[in-house]
């Protein structure tokens, strides 16, 4: 077995709730970086997050530039998204595209947190979509259910109020 290089991946997103697809992002990105011998710290995202770089007032241009120039980016594709178009549509991403790794998930899995929240709100099973520990936590804390005070649409502060 070829020796593996250390890789650190930093991801952002709501992960609300975390799905197996979210966890797969890390596995797919790590495998890609090991195959391309590209160690270091990389920003990891799905193509849906890469698209948000174009959303006005969501990201500062200087933050996007710092991420892709200093650290680089690993973007895992997702159905319905065109990361190459997002890169070509952004002067900053185009300038640093040599630091952007586009990776395809070999097993297409379109689990979305939005779908999971909706299914839970309708009382449907999410078994095998989420890790068992996440399902147990959601059930124990009555999250995203019809009976949930916030119906899964908000977060609670320490006082129990929904934000």
What this model shows, in words?
39% of the residues lie in helices and 12% in strands. The chain has 163 residues and is an alpha/beta fold. Strands 1-2-3-4 form a four-stranded parallel beta sheet. It has helices at 20-36, 47-52, 61-71, 83-88, 91-95, 113-121, 132-140; strands spanning 7-11, 40-46, 73-76, 100-103. It has seven helices and four strands; from the N terminus they run βαβααβααβαα.
Shape: globular
Strand content: 5-15%
Unreliable stretches: 152-163
- Helix share of residues? 25-40%
Structural class: alpha/beta
Kindly, what is the distance between the CA atoms of the first and last residues, rounded to a whole number of angstroms?
A: 50 Å
Global mean pLDDT: 80
The value of Rg in angstroms is: 18 Å
Q: How many β-strand runs?
A: 4
Q: Can you summarize the main beta sheet?
A: 4 strands, parallel
The total of helices stands at 7
Major beta sheet, strand line-up = 1-2-3-4
| Element order: H for helix, E for strand | EHEHHEHHEHH
């Amino acid at each position: 077995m070829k020796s593996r290089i250390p890789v650190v991946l930093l991801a952002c997103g709501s992960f609300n709730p975390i799905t197996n697809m979210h966890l797969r992002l890390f596995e797919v990105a790590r495998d890609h970086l090991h195959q391309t011998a590209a160690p270091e710290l990389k920003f990891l995202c799905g193509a849906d997050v890469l698209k948000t770089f174009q959303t006005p007032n969501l990201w500062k241009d200087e933050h996007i530039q710092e991420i892709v120039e200093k650290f680089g980016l690993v973007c895992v594709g997702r159905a319905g998204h065109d990361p190459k178009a997002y890169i070509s549509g952004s002067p900053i991403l185009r300038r640093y595209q040599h630091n952007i790794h586009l990776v395809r998930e070999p097993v297409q899995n379109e689990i979305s947190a939005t779908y999971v929240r909706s299914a839970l709100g309708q009382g449907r099973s999410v078994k095998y979509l989420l890790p068992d520990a996440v399902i147990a936590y959601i059930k124990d804390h009555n999250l995203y259910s019809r009976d949930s005070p916030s119906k899964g649409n908000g977060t609670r502060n320490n006082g129990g109020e929904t934000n």
